[in-house]
């Protein structure tokens, strides 16, 4: 929306033979509307007029200004950069006294056909510039890849306790492993793999533990439980009896 900020005072008298131009300062204000409200305004001219007047009143109160409630709706949509918006607004404005005088001087001595030809050439030039601005890709990519200079942190080994449980004859029957995982919320985060003589526990980006077991185990009979309250993983591994 284009609102008048102030006007240049009218001259009481102009010197003969001198053309004076008065440029009107303005500001561009972005105002966001609910799409449904805009749609109602497009369907009903009275609602659109009320919406515009409420907007002008809001700008007055927000910026402590006094605005004229006379307005003009541009016949085109404003898109792109602020500078392009200003150029579009300038194209849609009626030439001021100085521009009219320049046009009169430039066209002096030209026939009607020549004036029409010049006007069409200028319109074609403006359309070509606008098309180039729309289709020319940005020279600077929106996303720039930056090579990382950070060295990946080595995963820390969690605290653990390994216990070999014997029977009454002091023969090992199972191995219990308690692992403290304070950063783990669910057992689904853990990746556990084991063989007869070792195991590996991995939690992506958090922990990694690799152990050689003191006894050969029956990995198919091993069980694991996770205490969410204490954040402790308990793994029970029966010792393989075929090796004893």
TrEMBL record:
Segments forming a coiled coil: none
Pfam families membership: PIH1_CS (PF18201)
GO cellular component: cytoplasm; R2TP complex; ribonucleoprotein complex
Residue ranges occupied by any PIH1D1/2/3 CS-like domain in the UniProt entry: 169-239
A biological process term (GO) from this entry: rRNA processing
Highest taxon of the lineage: Eukaryota
CDD domains the UniProt entry points to: ACD_sHsps_p23-like (cd00298)
Family note: Belongs to the PIH1 family.
Protein's recorded name: PIH1 domain-containing protein 2
Species assigned in the record: Alligator sinensis (Chinese alligator)
Phylogenetic classification of the source organism: Eukaryota, Metazoa, Chordata, Craniata, Vertebrata
